[in-house]
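Hypothesis: this fold can be encoded by more than one sequence.
Test: take the structure tokens below, design a sequence, compare later.
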């Protein structure tokens, strides 16, 4: 049976196949996008955890030194022994923060290994190639409408939604085309050697046939399938609008969050610089004999805490 295709049916079929191919390519691109995002986030978490662990380890060491100095003063009778309780509590808190940072770092390394596709043991001894990740001042993004449009139309999810809508539109065109008659040609060939007639006992009978049929959607005009195709296209359009709105939300949240994150990092960096200068002043005073060791350790602890706050602000800005 041979079907005589309608006008434009082959072109619509080829266009639909091309659009489905593009949608599949968009799915692959979205998968790559997700993997890159996971690698970026895991790498950032590992870098932050390692730097934070180093600062917290130094903080714990300074807390231990301060506690030892205060205990020596208490044993000498210069201060009350009850005053060392506060230092013991702060030391316990610092150790707890250190263990928590180490646990988060181990989890981040596991997620990084999973995102890259290797085992955690394969990352042992591998140095991170993101040494200046906390230098937020080096980031100077310039927000513009062109970048906003590029960020929107470049997302594979939007491309996939667009191609889905185009596919449903072509399907609707095909259903609309079925409102017109559809012709079928059915050729046939038969042979027989039954020998029913004496004079044709040794002859073969041949028969050629040709049938023509066609469909006439006279009563309903193919309204049911056309209505279903319209509904599918409407659904695809609503899905496209939802994807576009979700991408707009992500872009707008990033645009609005960046100035505040940058300002928070700048304030934290300024406070850290002030604490560093204060520690340097206490070191000079201690070298000159104008202050004692607990005062110097307190200034060192304040500077380390300021570095931790600055590091956290840099992490928030990178997110």
């Amino acid at each position: 049976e041979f079907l005589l295709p309608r006008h434009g049916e082959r072109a619509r079929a080829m266009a639909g196949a091309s659009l489905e191919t593009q949608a599949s390519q968009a799915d692959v691109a979205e998968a790559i996008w997700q993997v890159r995002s996971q690698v970026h986030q895991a790498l950032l978490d590992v870098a932050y955890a390692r730097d934070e662990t180093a600062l917290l380890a130094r903080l714990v060491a300074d807390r231990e030194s301060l506690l030892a100095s205060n205990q020596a003063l208490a044993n000498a009778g210069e201060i009350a022994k009850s005053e060392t309780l506060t230092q013991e509590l702060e030391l316990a808190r610092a150790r707890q923060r250190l263990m928590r940072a180490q646990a988060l770092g181990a989890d981040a390394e596991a997620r990084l290994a999973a995102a890259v596709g290797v085992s955690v043991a394969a990352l042992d001894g591998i140095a991170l190639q993101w040494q200046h990740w906390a230098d937020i001042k080096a980031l100077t993004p310039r927000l513009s409408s062109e970048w906003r449009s590029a960020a929107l139309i470049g997302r594979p999810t939007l491309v996939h939604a667009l191609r889905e809508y185009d596919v449903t539109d072509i399907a609707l065109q095909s259903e609309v085309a079925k409102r017109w008659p559809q012709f079928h040609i059915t050729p046939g060939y038969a042979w027989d050697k039954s020998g029913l007639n004496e004079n044709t006992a040794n002859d073969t009978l041949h028969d050629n046939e040709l049938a023509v049929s066609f469909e006439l959607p006279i009563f309903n005009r193919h309204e049911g399938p056309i209505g279903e195709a319209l509904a599918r296209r409407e659904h695809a359009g609503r899905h496209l609008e939802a994807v576009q709105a979700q991408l707009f939300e992500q872009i707008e949240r990033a645009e609005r969050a960046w100035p505040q994150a940058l300002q928070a990092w700048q304030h934290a960096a300024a406070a850290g610089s002030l604490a560093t200068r204060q520690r340097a002043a206490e070191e000079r005073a201690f070298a000159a004999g104008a202050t004692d060791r607990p005062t110097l350790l307190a200034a060192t602890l304040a500077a380390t805490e300021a570095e931790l706050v600055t590091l956290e602000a840099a992490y928030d800005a990178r997110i």
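Helices lie at 9-75, 84-116, 145-153, 156-177, 223-287, 293-318. The first helix runs from residue 9 to 75.
Hypothesis status: open.
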